[in-house]
Design goal:
The complex is a heterodimer. By secondary structure, chain A is mainly α. Chain A has one domain: Arp2/3 complex 21 kDa subunit ARPC3. Chain A has 11 helices and 4 strands. In chain A, strands 1-2 form a two-stranded antiparallel sheet. Chain A has a two-stranded antiparallel sheet with strand order 3-4. In chain A, β1 and β2 form a beta hairpin. In chain A, α3 crosses α6 and α4 runs antiparallel to α5. Chain B is mainly alpha-helical. Chain B has 2 domains: 146 residues, no CATH class; 71 residues, no CATH class. Helices cover 69% and strands 3% of the residues of chain B. Chain B has a two-stranded antiparallel sheet with strand order 1-2. In chain B, α3 packs parallel to α6, α3 packs antiparallel against α10 and α7 packs antiparallel against α8. Classes of the chains: A mainly alpha, B mainly alpha. The interface between A and B is large, with 86 and 90 residues.
């Protein structure tokens, strides 16, 4: 189920779009490092695979069934960069060709279902795989944990965005509880099917599993006279660990913060948190916000700036920051390529 | 095999809307969607205006209403969610037909329903009047990274092949008397998914080798030249501009 148009306000939609664009830009460079000139056909086919697997319904309990999100599965199978690209392309195709998921919500969808699931799933997978050892069971367990955590993590980021700029009058705590609870269940299903899928691929073509690359056994050559010789496996090309995650998380945090502060005041109706505050009465003791004196404070009307303009300023600010981040990364990526070339 | 079978989403035709270059249509639809999302939910007349604009586009493109209505089924999950909002929403309550409904929830449900519907119809019309391949070429003209466009093209081209493979596996399972009913059957489904991944990946490797043998050097040649005249840009720009006018006047 993808987020449609109108679910989040315009500011959050555009901010998430900036985050998604920056994330996809980083992953384009990363994927080219993972796959070189094979990127286009391989990522395209894996994207088609993710699309197909999302249609694969699996039974969760009697009568209900869920379907795979596939972000963590793709991250374990083909690496985090390619996984984000594949899921992003799948979501874009679903949005533009199948009208599944709003066009303005594309950024939100890519951020939540592509970037968050793949990055969180991959991080947890690596962490567990390091401790669980390189056996097939260990990798499957790590894949289970990664997929299990990635789904509620996506749900929580959704809740965070909802808190910042959701268009429905539900208390954030309720949303967090409901989303977290339901998605923990879905996560168990996702984890099971991810672990079993990874384990199946490991049994047949272990060389295809990106997450198992560091665990290649060395080649043993056995001559006709019975003499054996060990040829060490080629050192696997590791994806730069941490950087995309750190960058993407930082980007999400900065943009969300900005969008939150601005859209909080641009909204003309009390949002969920304020509503909870009113209902439970802690709004009475809450002191006036420190931004009250500033032009954008209090629903954008206090300083004589109408709501719409406040929203536009918010969008402009977020776009500027998003663009700045994008530019910084681009320059850094360019530098590393030059240093490699030299 | 690789041509793709998108008959169900694309409606071939030769109308003004079909002939517009894709790089004009894409920003027009995106702009329209942004205007719709940014409209305050109290402006009923504006939403009616947007619906009229879309109806005009559909009429110009000769897309029949039943075609759009049938494809709107994608929206159903969110309709269910939106209908639940007045019941679970917070705040001031009104009673209607014996039920206590949240006023704020009713507004939210209306807001989500109307904006999601307008967005869905806009993208249905875009997909119905533009060939998927052309849409991606248009995206490339709009400076979307070529690698991303290529990935999407490969995905579109092989989507039906992979889906067919999945369907064949399902038929094979079912012809052996298996249907997934509860959690214990997940391993079987997962094994199918694993086999599907291996088949997709190996097909990708074969496709790559086939491309190399035909002289692929990292980028796809542009065969057709997609140029748009300023009149076509103006025509496509009518969609968001009219929407903005509706928003401004009403």
């Amino acid at each position: 189920m993808h987020v449609p148009d109108g679910f989040f306000n315009a500011v959050v939609s555009v901010s998430a779009g900036a985050v998604a664009a920056a994330g996809v830009a980083v992953c384009l460079r990363g994927a080219r490092r993972e796959l070189d000139d094979r990127t286009a056909p391989m990522a395209g086919l894996v994207a088609a695979f993710v699309f197909a697997v999302q249609m694969l319904n699996f039974p969760v309990a009697a009568g209900t069934s869920g379907h795979l999100m596939g972000g963590a599965l793709a991250a374990v199978l083909v690496g985090p960069y390619t996984a984000v690209l594949c899921v992003a392309v799948v979501l874009a195709v679903q949005g533009f060709f199948f009208a599944d998921g709003g066009l303005t919500a594309l950024g939100v969808n890519i951020t939540i279902m592509g970037i968050v699931t793949a990055v969180v799933g991959w991080a947890v997978f690596r962490l567990i795989a390091r401790f669980a050892g390189g056996s097939r069971g260990g990798l499957a367990a790590a894949a289970f944990a990664g997929a299990l955590v990635s789904v509620p993590a996506a749900a929580l980021v959704f809740t965070l965005l909802f808190w910042i700029g959701g268009n429905a009058p539900i208390a954030v705590a309720d949303v967090a509880l409901a989303m977290g609870g339901v998605h923990l269940l879905i996560g168990i299903g996702e984890g099971l099917i991810t672990a079993l899928t990874v384990s199946t691929v490991l049994a047949v073509r272990p060389d295809l599993v990106f997450g198992a690359r560091g665990l290649k056994r060395s080649l043993v050559l056995r001559g006709a006279d019975g003499a054996t010789e060990q040829v060490p496996a080629q050192a696997p090309r590791q994806a730069a660990p941490g950087r995309p995650g750190r960058f993407v998380l930082g980007g999400i945090a900065v943009t969300a913060l900005l969008a939150g502060i601005v859209s909080f005041y641009a909204s003309s109706s009390p949002d969920g948190l304020e509503r909870v505050a009113q209902d439970t009465g802690f709004g009475v003791v809450a002191t006036d916000h420190q931004l009250v004196g500033q032009p954008l404070a209090d629903y954008g009307e206090a300083g004589g700036i109408p709501v719409g303009v406040a929203g536009l300023i918010g969008v402009a600010v977020t776009l500027a920051v998003g663009g700045g981040l994008f530019f910084a990364v681009r320059r850094r990526a360019g530098e590393t390529r030059e240093s490699v070339g030299a | 095999m690789g041509a793709g079978h998108h008959h169900h989403i694309y409606r071939p035709g030769d109308t003004v809307v079909h002939r517009l270059p894709p790089q004009c249509k894409l920003p027009a639809v995106l702009g329209f969607a942004v205007v719709v999302v940014a409209t305050p939910r109290e402006m009923f007349a504006a939403f009616a205006g947007y619906a009229l604009i879309l109806a005009g586009v559909a009429a110009a493109a000769r897309v029949p209403p039943w075609f759009v209505l049938r494809r709107m089924a994608v929206e159903l999950p969110f309709v269910v969610f939106a209908l639940a909002l007045p019941v679970i929403g917070l705040g001031e309550r009104v009673s209607f037909a014996g039920m206590s409904l949240s006023l704020e929830g009713l507004w939210a449900a209306w807001n989500i329903l109307v904006k999601a519907t307008l967005g869905v119809v806009a993208s249905i019309l875009l997909a119905a009047t533009t060939e998927p391949r052309m849409l991606l070429l248009g995206a490339q003209r709009l400076r979307v990274p070529p690698l991303l466009v290529q990935i999407a093209m490969f995905m579109l081209r092989y989507m039906d092949v992979i889906l067919d493979e999945m369907r064949r596996m399902r038929i094979a399972r079912e012809s052996r008397g298996f249907t997934a009913r509860d959690v214990r059957h997940i391993p079987v489904i997962a094994r199918s998914a694993g086999a599907l991944f291996i088949r997709s990946y190996e097909r990708g490797e074969r496709v790559h080798l086939a491309m190399l043998s035909r002289g692929y050097g990292g980028s796809m040649p542009m065969i057709s030249d997609l140029s748009a005249s300023w009149r076509q840009w103006m025509l496509a720009g009518l969609l968001p501009v009219l929407a903005l006018l509706v928003l401004g006047v009403l």
